[in-house]
Design brief:
Blueprint lengths: L17 E7 L2 H11 L4 H4 L1 H5 L10 H14 L7 E5 L2 E2 L8 E12 L4 E10 L2 E11 L3 H4 L1 H6 L1
Antiparallel strand pairs: 1-4, 2-6, 3-6, 4-5, 5-6
GO biological process, one term: fatty acid biosynthetic process
Pfam family, one: MaoC_dehydratas
InterPro entries: Fatty_acid_synthase, HotDog_dom_sf, MaoC-like_dom, UPF0336/Enoyl-CoA_hydratase
């Protein structure tokens, strides 16, 4: 899953624009996330341990699921050059290995004087929201991205 890059500048954004990404969670994703972060909670890594929890099976790290939001923000909406300011997260339900997570990011508000975009973020599995929240990002303008072209035009 490597989303194709799409560059959008602040001037390209409008309220209601959205982008969706889908990712099926593999056991190797969960193990890799544990290795990178050091979060080796057995609910993520041990089927024996997880079987005795309310979930009954291994689940993905919540922040791995949240990281899929970052993939949308950094590659598609708004895309390269966007800078995370903040992110709120509400964990609603577990994500299990083998689940396909559909991540939707939508422009909720634009703040032109600060070049900020407020985006609603939702992760769903089979139509059920498993995570939601809001992101605030700084989005470059065309002039900031290419100051020489901006002076010519």
């Amino acid at each position: 899953m490597m989303p194709e890059l799409r560059v959008l500048y602040f001037e390209d954004l409008s309220v209601g624009m959205s982008e969706t990404l889908s990712k099926t969670i593999a056991a190797s994703d969960v193990v890799g996330f544990a290795e990178i972060t050091g979060d080796r909670n057995p609910i993520h890594l041990s089927e024996h341990f997880a079987a005795r929890t309310p979930f009954g099976t291994r689940i993905a790290h919540g922040l791995y699921t949240a990281g899929l939001i970052s993939a949308v923000l950094g590659t598609r909406l708004p895309g390269p050059g966007a800078i995370y300011i903040s992110q709120s997260l509400n964990f609603r339900a577990p994500v299990r290995i083998g689940d396909t997570v559909d991540v939707t990011v939508e422009v909720a508000e634009l703040v032109p004087e600060r070049r900020r975009a407020r985006l609603t973020c939702t992760c769903a599995v089979g139509g059920e929201t498993v995570l939601d929240g809001e992101a605030l990002v700084k989005v470059p303008t065309k002039a900031e991205a290419d100051p020489i072209a901006a002076r010519k035009g």
